[in-house]
Amino acid sequence: MSFSIFRTNFAWYHKSIVTKLLAIYTIFGEVKAMLKDQIRHYREEKKLTQEELADKIHVSRSLVAKWEQGRGVPSSEDFESLCSALEISVSDIVPYQTVVETNKKNTKKRNIIVSLVAIILLLVMVWIIVDNVDQTDFKRDL
Predict the structure, then answer these.
(1) Domain spans in the chain, listed from the N-terminal domain onward
(2) What pTM does this model have?
């Protein structure tokens, strides 16, 4: 494998990982923010206290409070129980369209960050190559 093929594959692989991690982090943060508001909204709409909702889904009141404060998210099992207890669907509490729109808004920011990381990696690689060439030339001159 030539160096240029390795560099191209590495750059693509690195960009792919960074992009995915940033997307996951951004989407998770947005979903977490939506969840806290939505859980409270639907709980209050059903005129339930945190304690009553917690009893319905077999969790502690403090866990429901944690979700509503945005300090945590329900597990998949708790999420299903939550939607069932509030008589809503998953798409009611986290609309897919909202997640897609949020992802589109953050695409430009992610692209800039990925580009900066790629430039930094490229500069480090060039510095390593130049440093190795200089050391090799120095040894030959001796």
Answers:
(1) 3-141
(2) 0.51
